[in-house]
Amino acid sequence: MRTFRDDNERSQREYIRHPIDIPIHIQSQSPLGALGVRMNNVSIGGLAFRTQHYIEPGHMIKITIDAVRPIFQVKAAVQWCHQVDQEFEIGVQFSDLEDAFQMRMVEQVCHIEHYRQQVWREEKRHLSGEAAAAEWIEKYAHQFPKLDLPP
Question: Based on the number of CB atoms within 10 Å of its own CB, is 8 exposed (0-12), middle (13-18) or buried (19 or more)?
């Protein structure tokens, strides 16, 4: 199995990060339990989010994204935790390539759903999921960042 584990050959900034604003739930076996947070960026290797709580690097967490069907769940390792203002920005790393590919699909589905809602707000036009996907692909897929695979 191909992994993304940091073996001192890759830095935490090697993969291009793509901004995204998706609600996620993280679950930890620490006293934190479950938290609802918002993902702020994603890359082929992992994702980042902000929370009010410090999470120790090396700690394993479960990430759930229930804005998509089927619900997406993945385990990830906390790679870094930096204080930013009154919060902590946390970067996690996926354990394998399959999780990374699935996350990219989740990201695209979330963009399409955002587009569907935007069309309703701005044009009062109702789109089915399929129609929204077709329009989004035609208008924006060429702008969607390509997947940066590790060597």
Answer: exposed
Looking at the chain, the number of H-run helices and the number of E-run strands are 2, 6
Rounded to the nearest 10 degrees, what angle do helices 97-123 and 129-140 cross at?
A: 100
Q: How far is CA 26 from the centre of its chain?
A: 12
Q: Do 22 and 92 belong together in one domain?
A: yes
Share of the chain above pLDDT 70, in %: 77
Residue type, position 130, single letter: E
Contact 23, 45 (CB under 8 A): no
The rounded distance, in Å, linking the Cα atoms of 140 and 104 is 15
pTM value > 0.90: no
pLDDT for 11 equals 39
Distance from C-alpha of 104 to C-alpha of 81, rounded to nearest angstrom = 23
Instruction: Output the pLDDT for position 82.
Output: 93
Residue 2 lies in a domain: no
- Same structural domain for residues 81 and 46? yes
DSSP for residue 43: -
The amino acid at 145 = P
What's the whole-number mean pLDDT along residues 93-102?
Answer: 78
Span 140-149, pLDDT tens digits = 877 765 655 5
